[in-house]
Design a protein that fits this description.
4-stranded antiparallel beta sheet, 19% helix
């Protein structure tokens, strides 16, 4: 385990992590003090981070599946490659957060109407997460992550004339209406 959780910009120790059983416990117990924290690749599945101050934190590649981030400040955070499947983001501030995209493309979330999660949906009964970014709407479901228009094309090919195609196209129309 990390000996300490440090600020990604200054290197200053934010939390002495060796006092805790694991990184998840250290983050949960100190969620108010994690602004700018370096948590790249941290395993935080199911973590309770309600109201956490993670503004500007580096959560690149972090495993946040099923985490509760309700009301959390993730403004300006680096979430590139983070697994947010099933994470609860209700009321979370994500303005300026970096999602990271294909080929290292930087995607910045818009301030308003920036994340929408729909599901379970599709053949795998998984969650579809839509992100309203500075480069348009992107969709993630499973390992798929691309523009909403490319997703629509992919769905039309893979699920042609099925219930799943209908469900996804309805969800896409909803996402576009909400995020316009």
């Amino acid at each position: 385990m990390h000996e300490a959780i440090k600020n990604r910009f200054t290197g200053q120790v934010i939390v002495e992590a060796n006092k805790y059983t694991n990184i998840k416990e250290a983050v949960e117990k100190n969620r108010a003090y994690l602004e700018g924290a370096y948590l790249e690749g941290a395993y935080l599945e199911g973590a309770y981070l309600g109201g956490a101050n993670l503004g500007g934190a580096n959560l690149e590649g972090a495993y946040l599946e099923g985490a509760y981030l309700g009301g959390a400040n993730l403004g300006g955070a680096n979430l590139g490659g983070a697994n947010l499947e099933g994470a609860y983001l209700g009321g979370a501030y994500l303005g300026g957060a970096n999602l990271g995209g294909a080929n290292g493309e930087k995607l910045i979330l818009k301030t308003n109407n920036n994340v929408l999660i729909i599901g379970p949906i599709g053949s795998r009964q998984s969650y579809m997460t839509a992100y309203n970014t500075d480069k348009g709407i992107y969709v993630k479901t499973g390992c798929y992550f691309d523009t909403v228009d490319n997703f629509k094309l992919s769905v039309s090919k893979k699920h042609k004339d099925t219930k799943h195609q209908h469900d996804y196209l309805t969800a896409i129309a909803f996402v576009k209406a909400v995020m316009r």
